[in-house]
Amino acid sequence: MAELEIPDCVIRPRGPWAVAPQSRGRLFAEPQSPTRTDFQRDRDRIIHSTAFRRLKHKTQVFVAHEGDHYRTRLTHTIEVAQIARSIARSLALDEDLAEALALAHDLGHTPFGHTGEDALDEAMRAYGGFDHNAQSLRIVTRLERRYAEFDGLNLAWETLEGLVKHNGPLLQADGSPVARYRERGIPVAILEYQAQQNLELESFASAEAQAAAIADDIAYNAHDIDDGLRAGLFELSDMQQVPLAGELLAEIGEQHPGLDRSRTTHELMRRVITRLVEDVIGMGRAAFTSGLYRSSEDVRAAGKMLITFSPAVALADKGIKGFLYPNMYRHERVMRVRMHAAEMVTRLFDRLFADIGQMPAEWCEGLEGAREDKRARRVADYIAGMTDTFAINEHRRLFGSAPDLR
User: Which GO terms describe its molecular function (predicted)?
Assistant: First the structure.
């Protein structure tokens, strides 16, 4: 029997501004895969990671007790990946890199959404704080332990770069932190990795990373409206004056008079996503047909994000967030749950920091006689990896009870 020949990977057409399919390299050198590009390989490693599976039971805005149909970190991540691929395909970018970044962008989130992150950051304030983006990097470079040769997933340079810089540079040209890091400095996890492999923190990330970042924004807008309506935090009639959403509701009413609430909601979600994605693609095409960006390095050196909303749609995006903030994120029901969730995370940190032995044995390795900051970071790693359900059960184990998060 003739030996089976495995064909080369199918590489879709790319513009010159896209990242090349072969990476600059990995921290630990590995032979090329005969069946996958570097970024297809990264995507697969992320999907098979323990941290990715845990996203199934981590809250987006609501906790699992609210119902089975609300978004979790996992369903949100899948939605972001779909939008990121659509944008990347339309702009002749590397779809696999954009997808890998979308799939990895929330790996570092704590249980109980941003509430858990805020509580853990406060608990860690004396030890460098907690930042979910830095924690994502920590997971894929240190905390995942699946391979014989190295800790982490040993992802390609471009994937790590995009994971850290998808929202823009971390350093200014003079080496000082950008505004969002000026007060507290660059997160320790990022600086530690930067000392091993230079991620060029002063430049913008690739167009693929920018596509994943704006896909996250688009997914948030659409599904938070959907979840807010489903939970009864506000009604469709409350959105009639909201930029873009109100316009689309009027459009739906004219085209489909008498449409029931459920179908109207789904139609609104579909149109919000479509309108935002098409706007981003239009802006990206205008940038890339200008002739200014002839390589991925030109994109990194552009001095601004190139995958963006148009000014009019950026204003609408701000209006949608301006509606959701008081009507959803700060709704009385949500705030009550957030208070109890934050209390749980704080109590878990305090108890585990005081008594390291309450963690599983493998989490205590090397901590005997260790400095406080090392112990605190290990506790933060442990808590950040918890699902909502596990955190509730751990609180019940350690304190005999847990708040009712409803």
Answer: dGTPase activity
